[in-house]
Amino acid sequence: EEVEEDEIEKGRKAVIDLKDKLSLKKLPERIEALDISNIQGKLSVGSLVVFEEGRPKKKDYRRFRVKRVKGIDDYAMLQEVTERRYKRLLSEGKKLPDLVLVDGGRGQLIAVKKILDSLNLELPIISIAKKEEEILSLK
């Protein structure tokens, strides 16, 4: 029981730290992270990982088979997955995330932002570029 309380407290602290470091207006209690995987250039899958209060929420994880994009086009694939995810949340009246995290660099960040803008969603969005170990935003 105590371990559980400790984990909850760590999650809360992480969320508060993230809000401060990213200068967010609202605590990022729900974070949705998007990534694209290509298996031998054929099967492309979008992954959605969800965190609530700084802790993984595995029952909300999703995988999206990329349907419309042919060939390897990371930006277009991210746009397809983003559009499908957030159109569905909007149509079902479900809770939107407080922060969208994109695996990739500036190009991926801009690609996802275009879709969010087209859906009239003003969600904070950042990307994490592994090679440069940079966190990017469009502020």
From TrEMBL:
User: What residue stretches are annotated with the UvrC family homology region profile domain?
Assistant: 12-116
Q: Which GO terms describe its molecular function?
A: excinuclease ABC activity
Q: Which biological process annotations from GO are given for this protein?
A: DNA damage response
Q: Which Gene3D superfamilies match?
A: UvrC, RNAse H endonuclease domain (3.30.420.340)
Q: Which Gene Ontology terms of cellular component type are present?
A: excinuclease repair complex
Per the UniProt record, one Pfam family is UvrC_RNaseH_dom
Protein name (Swiss-Prot/TrEMBL): UvrC family homology region profile domain-containing protein
